[in-house]
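User:
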Amino acid sequence: MDPVRPRGTDPVGPPGTDPVRPPGVDAPPICEVPQFAPVHVRGGRYRLRRLTRHKRRAVAAGLAVTAAALVAAGPGDAGRARGHPTGAPPSTSAASPPSPYPSPLPSPRSSSSSLRGRGAVEMVAAPVRIADAATVRLLRPGDRVDVIAADGGSEGRVVAAGARVAEVPDFAATETGALVVLSVPRATAARLAGAGTTARLAVTLC
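Assistant: Predicted structure:
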């Protein structure tokens, strides 16, 4: 048997050889780690700047699209969106139910008074006796005629110009002429009545 060696002793080999060490003591001795300069990755700062630039461009593009949408909407839509009422008030005619009773028609007296108040000419029906009964039979309601008074001279005078024929009575023809009803202003009717008492009246179609 091999003699027991005390701990911490190495066996001594033959001369000229390294002593045999026990297992676990072959590690090199501890030495100090030298100082190294920090390692910088090339392009890292450039990549960060490029990423930031892309983000800024995306934010600017989003703001531009939002501004274009607001301009296209117009100030009216923006005002309605904020709760401001529009310029025209809401119509209440559609909400109110229709009345079952018809609206009363204006009376003829009120209509004529309103026309006089507006400066319209008041028309009256004036019966006029025309000397030539055959000429009266040619007239029809709605025709326009000029009434001419002949006082016995060579030239007649126009008493009414452009008078509208309102009615042609069938039984009014006599030896002294025939009646025709004309729609003329009140002043013209007065002139026709005065001329019929002193002159013979004739008509010409307009």
